[in-house]
Amino acid sequence: MTDPTSLAATTIAERVRSGAITARSVAEAHIARIQNLDGKVGAFTAVTRARALAEADAVDARRRAGAPLGALAGVPYAVKNLFDVEGLPTLAGSKINRDHPPASRDAFLIRKLKAADAVLLGALNMGEYAYDFTGENAHDGPSRNPHDLSRMTGGSSGGSGAAAAAGFAPVTLGSDTNGSIRVPASLCGLFGLKPTYGRLSKAGSFPFVGTLDHLGPLARSTADCAAVYDAMRGHDPEDPACRDLPAEPLMPHVNAGIGGLRIARATGYFDRMQTQAATEAVRTVAKVLGAAETEIPHVNEARAAAFLITMAEGGHLHLERLKARAADFDPDTRTRLMAGALLPASMIAMAQRIRRKYREAVLKLFDSVDVILAPATPTVAPPLGSKTFALDGQQVPVRANLGLFTQPFSFIGLPVMAVPVWTSASSLPIGVQVIAPPWREDIAIRVAGHLESAGIASAKVAALA
Fold first, then answer.
1. pLDDT in tens, 383-426
2. Residue 178 belongs to a domain with what CATH number?
3. Structural domain of 157
4. Residue 465 domain flag
């Protein structure tokens, strides 16, 4: 019998619905793998074993009774620990939140996945308060990259990337403010979907930067990302940012091909600051897709403005915690939040003006192209503990620069699919971003599905012993 931990989410659901396997056997296999191997990886901060088995048993009971099952029947998943999970404190990667009472109910997206008969395995490690690109948590220890345990997962959804790549769950949920789904997807060799800002509800998740925060899935296939997105879509009046717009299912687009799409590779800024692996990955993808070239204007200014808005909104959110319990923050996080809290209003007003100008310029590009390609990270996973990495002949800070290429697109809320590519330049994977116009997740999924079918983009369970 095939090991359930190697199966795609869509395959698990099909087999559970047909009775070929039970949801309980799938849950037990994933829990056993977590228990045996997560001590090396550091993906989980809590395993909800009793809940997982109860949910799996309920799915099996309904199947035996002949009742219809949801689209994700028996599919195990886990969530970044900034999602509210009933019965667990919502840590958001922090020390301070450990003093909070357990959540009284699940986050909106968890409730949606439960309604689709998915099975929750637990909560995942993350960078403190999501202000991190490394996956190294000062309180829970680092998430380690399953493809090389001496390397970073990327952050802040580091546990989400580690769990999916390690075979602990076929799909995980993360958050993305400046790149925190796409950076772990890139470094851990996964598909990661950051939907349009306002597409999926954030209700029941701990915020970081309200005008930039997104939630979305990481998985080992395009279809699995699409299936989880489809289960989570829908308007939620509890989240003021969640738009009440029609959201067509993505699954029909996974194998729709790229016929008629106008595709271009981003040049200029995106050509100058990347390692050989990133260059090879994005150019390989561009060649397969027959991509033209386009230069995105004002990227440097946009990235600077994104830094300011991130620091200011984050600093304001945490100001009372900084006053009362500064010593309980990771020093790196504390310094940036304190600096953000001190930024003058005039500077933030200028950053918002740049944001509007940049958004107008990028949306204008979509008059002539349907898809823009860009690297997801400038480098493969750096070694754990690294403060810098080599880029363009110099050492640059890790925390500030792993999001070089993701930040300009989350800054204006565009939907992006990160796809994993394996190159001759490294034994480690690296991601390529597929960027679409607002509300067109279907286009990004079409391109990702085509790249996966062509064998250019692929994910795999890491060979952990």
1. 999 999 999 889 999 999 999 999 999 999 999 999 999 999 99
2. 3.90.1300.10
3. 4-453
4. no
